[in-house]
Structure formats: structure tokens, C-alpha cells
Amino acid sequence: MQELLEYRSKDIPYSRVLSSMCTIPHPIAIEAHNHFIETNLGDPGIFRGTKELECKLISMLGELLNNEKAAGYICSGGTEANIQGIRAARNIKAIKNSNIVIPKSAHFSFEKIGDILCVEIRRAKLDEEYKVDITAVEGLIDENTVAIVGIAGTTELGQIDPIDELSKLAIEKNIMLHVDAAFGGLVIPFMDNQYPFDFKLDGVSSITIDPHKMGMATIPSGGILFRDKSYLRALEVETPYLTVKAQYTLTGTRPGTGVASAYAVLKTLGFEGMKKIVKTCLKNTKVIVEEMEALGFEAVIEPIMNVVCFKCEEAERIKEELYKMRWVISTIREPKAIRFVIMPHVNEEVIKNFISDFRKIV
Ligand code: 0PR
């Protein structure tokens, strides 16, 4: 145990991390997690209660995303959720040499998707606000396109694509629309400004929404939700010797801890509690913006959610200098900028400490 703790002590605590989309789990999430440590949803006939809980959580998330009929499961994270969303689209369409059209701003998990699923990945350019350009998406669609993708909360800038327009396009072209709301799914519903991004839009067929990001659940807890359960059938394989006859998940053995912890947080905080957390993160994002502007930095876009980037030619050097001081920030390449994610652990005190060290560097 001593050996383990020595290694663990080398990790950088979240109080010095301004680059992560994960955070310290909510205390109720940890308690819930501990009760489910031995559960395996890969064999739901054994873990019947945990499976029932997963169904309840999916209904809860479905309700949040404006669709009581939503079907899906809690997975290892946004990567698996995106894989499964596209895999369902590919299997349903069953076209040879299929392709998907994604925004240039899409998360790198789509690189893996192209490789694993053998679908061609077509990247549509962005407009001046870093949202996907609808005309570019339309221009890339052809008879082999099985799905288009929109991002509700881009990894780098927290921008939201025009999902309503993508939805119209998906309906018109009779193809699927997968929305990657891995981060934004548990932010946007709780913001004062509303952005259409969920199943309320008829063209949306699947949504990635990760409780282990803004849902403050324990890792791993990702989410994939489909418009209805017919999509899950496109993912099924037979499981002859299990307590159930088929499996639609990507992994076999999978933990129930993420289900329990995500459920516990949402149930305990409720809609109003989540709203408060999001409000605080947005307020702290404003604090960072004010501090950075006072130092002469300009935001790449006015932050929509609790992700913000500041133009900086020396972003890489500054990141390295900060890392030597045990601060973790991130950078983006286009445009060259410093990136912050203002998660619940990035409170006013963390910001104050950070800015004080940041000033020394710049
Ligand atoms: N989709 C979007 C929009 C994402 O931002 C991410 C991850 C994913 C999908 C993939 O999710 P998983 O990593 O759960 O498979 N976004 C962060 C990123 O790659 C994840 C992250 C979290 C990175 C914590 C660093 C970190 O410390 O930047």
C-alpha cells in the first residue's frame, strides 16, 4: 500500500489542473461508487438491480435530452459513445465504402472511428465563429454518407455547432445525425442561454453525454443515447452462454460504478443543483476572462460555456513553464492559444493562486 501511495503522490492534484474535462467526483458519487465496486453490467442477469438502475439513469438522461423513449447505456467514455453512435449508423445504412461528415473541430476519437469502423472521415470547415459550416457539410455529403456529426461543446473552444441546421440537413438527406455532447450534454441544459442540440430536433439520432465530465461521476462513466431502442439492435451480437441472449455494448465486462455514481449525483442535486454548479463554473470562467484581459490577452471566442481560449503566440512555452511550477493548462494550435477548462474544482481560490503564478511568467 505504501508503494501504491508513493506513486499516487506523484500525480498532480486537481487543484492545479486547468486543462481537464474531468473533475473531483462529487462526495455522493464516491459513496455510491464504493457500493458497486464488484458489479459487472456485462452480465446483467446477475446484476439485475444494477441493470435496472442503468435503465433509470438512461431515462433520466433521456428526459434531460427531451426524449423519454431514448435508449442507450453507460460506457467507458465519450470515445466509446462516439464509436457506438457511428457504428449504429454504419450498420443501419449498410452501404459499402461508407463515409461520415464531421466538423474540423471534432474530438480526436473520430480518428479512431475511421480506423476501427473503416468509414471514411470527411472534415467540414468551420465558419469564423468556429462552428461547422453547413454549406461545407452539405457539399461533402454523397450517396455513401451514413451520418453527419455535430458537436455541442467542442473540446477546444466549447463552441456549439448549429445542430438545428444539421438536423434539417440530416432529415432532407435521410441520414443520421450523431451529436457529440460528451462535455456540453451536462452543461447546456443548465445554462440560462438555450441552444437547440438534443432529441427535440427530429433529425438527431444519437447523443454522446458523459457523466464523468460535468456530471461529477467517478471515471469511467460515459453515455450513449439513441432516439429509440431500434438503434441498439444494430449493435447487437449473440451471447449464447450469458444470462441474456444478446449484447449491444462495445466492451463485455463493464462496471456498474459509473451508473451508481452518475445516478447519485443527478438524483441528489436535481436540475436546480446542477444549474447552480454550472452557474458557478460560468461565473468563474468570467473571472478568468477578466484576469486574462487585464493582462492583455484576448479570448478566441467569447466563451459559451466553461471552456475558454486566449490567443497567444507563446502558448507552448508558457504551458511548459507553468508545468515546471506544477500547473497544468492546455493549448490549441489553430489559432495558437492557451486553453482553460473551468471545472467545478477550478474555484476562485484556485484561479487566484494560478493567476498569481501566471503573472510571474508573462
Ligand atoms: N467528445 C468530446 C467533445 C470530448 O471533449 C471528449 C474528451 C471526447 C469526446 C472523448 O471522451 P473520453 O475521453 O471520455 O473518451 N475530451 C477531453 C479531451 O480529450 C477529455 C479529457 C479529460 C482530457 C481529462 C484531459 C483530461 O485531463 O481533451
In short:
This protein is of the alpha/beta class and about 350 residues long. The protein has helices at about 1-10, 25-35, 50-65, 80-95, 110-115, 135-140, 165-175, 230-235, 255-295, 315-325, 350-360; strands at about 70-75, 100-105, 120-125, 145-150, 175-180, 205-210, 220-225, 235-240, 245, 305-310, 330, 335-340. It folds into two domains: about 1-20 and about 270-360, Alpha-Beta Complex (Aspartate Aminotransferase, domain 1), CATH 3.90.1150; about 25-265, 3-Layer(aba) Sandwich (Aspartate Aminotransferase, domain 2), CATH 3.40.640.10.
Could you say which structural class the secondary elements and strand pairing correspond to?
A: alpha/beta
Mean pLDDT: 97
Query: How many β-strand stretches?
Result: 12
Put simply, the count of helices is: 11
Bound molecules: ligand 0PR
User: What is the share of helical residues?
Assistant: 25-40%
CATH class of the largest domain equals Alpha Beta
SSE topology string? HHHEHEHEHEHEEEHEEHEHEEH
> What proportion strand?
5-15%
Please state the second-level CATH architecture of the largest domain: 3-Layer(aba) Sandwich
CATH-assigned fold name of the largest domain: Aspartate Aminotransferase, domain 2
Computed Rg: 21 Å
Shape: globular
Q: Can you list the strand order of the major beta sheet?
A: 1-7-6-5-4-2-3
Number of domains: 2
Oligomer: single chain
The main sheet comes to: 7 strands, mixed
Catalogue the unreliable spans: none
